[in-house]
Amino acid sequence: MGRPRAFDTETAVARALDTFWSRGYEATSVGDLCGAMGLSRSSLYEAFGSKHGLLLAALESYEAGVTKRVAAALSRPFPVQVNLRDFLMVFVDGAVEGPGRRGCFLGNCTGELAAAEPELAARFGSAFDAIEGEIHVALARGQAAGEIAPDTDIRALARFLVSTIQGLRLVAKANPHRDRLVDIVDVALRTVR
Question: What is the Cα–Cα distance from 149 to 141, expressed in whole angstroms?
């Protein structure tokens, strides 16, 4: 029987996620991760198997958190357009104020790794599907409440909104200008009718 871990796995994964998010997967060395997590190489490898295994743990943590945040933001007792606007404006505010300029961790990983690693591409696709699912639920509530036309294809609209969020976060990395980003939000919300 091995020794019990002398570190909090959740905290270690959160620190690794932050490091990958700031630097990118390829640019992050095992030494960078050990330093950020406060672990030795042997502890990292024993707990996660490899740098890749640690990335998978970070992705799992991010996916769970982002899906909960989307659901919480879009389930507030307001019209769906209000909830969507408030949700999108969080990204605008984050980009303009600085911390949101890293983009979306999932989007960054997809851009960096999906083409070369089909297994990861499928994983990223599933994560985007989960986000789309939460948006679809919100749109369905809005449609049932008469806020969205009954003939609107809300599945397609949810997919469009996921793409809009990713595009907004990507553009914000290079052009964190509030007026430009608000234009994107305003045009996207015109589709929610």
Answer: 12
